[in-house]
Amino acid sequence: MEGNSSWKWRWSKLVRKIERVHTLGERQELIERLSKPDRPLILAFANAHSMNLLAKSESFFKSLCDADTVLRDGSGMETLFNQLRIPPGLNLNGTDLIPDLISLFNGRCIALLGTQEPYLRSGVDFVEKNLAPQSNFVHANGFHEEKVYLLLAAESCPALIVLGMGMPRQEEVAIALRSTLSYPCLIVCGGAIIDFWGGRTTRAPLWMRRNGMEWFFRLQLEPKRLFQRYVTGNMVFLARALIFPFFNSGLIQKIFRSRV
Question: Residues 27, 213, 191, 229: what is their CA dihedral angle, to the nearest 10 degrees?
Answer without folding.
Answer: 140
